[in-house]
Design goal:
Radius of gyration: 21 Å
CATH class of the largest domain: Alpha Beta
CATH topology of the largest domain: TIM Barrel
Largest sheet: 8 strands, mixed
Structural class: alpha/beta
Helix content: 40-55%
Length: 368
């Protein structure tokens, strides 16, 4: 579920967002509930059991406890939810009080993803984040005190003004907190972000970004975390079940403005403008904007690209099938990656190595 509201838009963010107002969020929530009501009338709805629910944004932690209870309660009325389902909410540290998080837990939330991004106050200010490094630590402690069963932390490397020493200090401090999971993303200036439109100075050179990646990977391994996906690290038993659905190319529903879903061979996207989304949902219509029926070749390419993002990799015969579709350079590219130690095969599966993760975008381009 995409909850689009933000008090302040971060310069690096390219997600579909809208300025927060209490009245706007209340009206939006009613529309989101209406979308779930409409989905529940689909002929397949009675055969579906939800095993994960993920609230992303925007800033879903702007939802009040009562709003969170109403939302998750309505979903439980309309769809079967598996016992022990993973229910995750993205949370900004400045919204994370023990009282609010305890209310979320009572509503059914069992997993929290904290958008920390940095532990350097100077960099946080440049990112337009509303929290300080101290507030980030307090938020993590609040999640533990509220009884949230699994807590994840998000970080970004390759940021303007971020040197290797500062990044190393951030990684060491976050690991000292003992999160169950954390994600670390290399900064990209995606279209739709303010930084993409306006430009931003102080970007570190490529060798510094690479050094930051390796500093994180080594520190996480030493601390006992599994690097199970390009940007994701977990303690045993704490992989993100929801994100693994994407990487395994399994079905999922997308609700809210701009949300994307995947059912059967169809990928679809909701309309992005919040006002238009709300009006459509209020009239009982599904707020669909576009859809695409994937060809077998597209499906195979997706299966490979998504699967190779993970340490589990993909079945070797899927990669062989993809190579057989053309006489181009892909087989030679794969051989070169194997020789460089970027790609390995064992027990009938092919996976990227740690170094391969770092360079994966180049390979994914060829897989298309």
């Amino acid at each position: 579920m995409h909850v689009p509201f933000c008090v302040e838009r971060c310069g690096y963010c390219s997600f579909n967002t809208a300025p927060y107002t209490a009245d706007g969020q209340s009206r939006f929530l009613a529309a989101l509930l209406a979308e779930w009501d409409r989905l529940a009338t689909s002929p397949w709805a009675g055969r579906v059991t939800l095993d994960t629910v993920f609230l992303g944004g925007g800033t879903p932690s702007l939802l009040t406890v009562d709003q969170m209870q109403a939302l998750l309660g309505r979903i439980g009325e309309r769809f079967a939810i598996e016992d022990g389902a993973e229910i995750t909410v993205e949370c900004n540290p400045d919204d994370a009080t023990v009282e609010r998080l305890a209310g979320y837990r009572k509503a059914g939330v069992g997993r929290l993803s904290l958008g920390v991004q940095s532990l350097d106050d100077r960099i946080l200010a440049r990112l337009d984040r509303r929290h300080s490094a101290r507030q980030a630590r307090v938020a993590f402690e609040a999640a533990r005190a509220a009884g949230i069963g699994s807590v994840s932390v998000d970080l970004i490397y390759g940021l303007p003004g971020l040197d290797l020493a500062t990044w190393g200090a951030t990684v060491r401090e976050v690991l000292a907190w003992g999160p169950d999971h954390f994600s670390a993303y290399g900064l990209t200036l995606d279209e739709g972000s303010l930084w993409h439109a306006r430009g931003v100075g102080g970007m570190p050179p490529e060798e510094t970004v690479t050094a930051q990646y390796w500093a994180l990977a080594r520190a996480a391994a030493e601390a006992g975390y599994e690097h199970y996906e390009i940007s994701s690290y977990a303690r045993p038993g704490h992989r993100s079940r929801h994100n693994q659905r994407y990487w395994r190319r399994e079905e999922y529903l997308g609700t809210g403005p701009g949300a994307c879903g995947f059912l059967g061979s169809v990928r679809y996207a909701n309309v992005k403008p919040v006002e238009r989304y709300t009006r459509l949902a209020e009239t009982g219509r599904l707020p669909l904007d576009s859809h695409e029926v994937l060809t077998p070749r597209q499906a195979l390419a997706e299966r490979l690209m998504l699967g190779l993002r993970t340490s589990d990799g993909v079945p070797a015969h899927h990669l062989a099938e993809r190579c057989a579709l053309e006489r181009g350079r892909l087989p030679e590219t794969l051989d070169a990656w194997r020789q460089r130690g970027l790609l390995v095969e064992d027990h009938g599966r092919v996976r990227l190595t740690e170094a391969g993760f770092l360079l994966s975008d180049a390979l994914f381009t060829d897989l298309l």
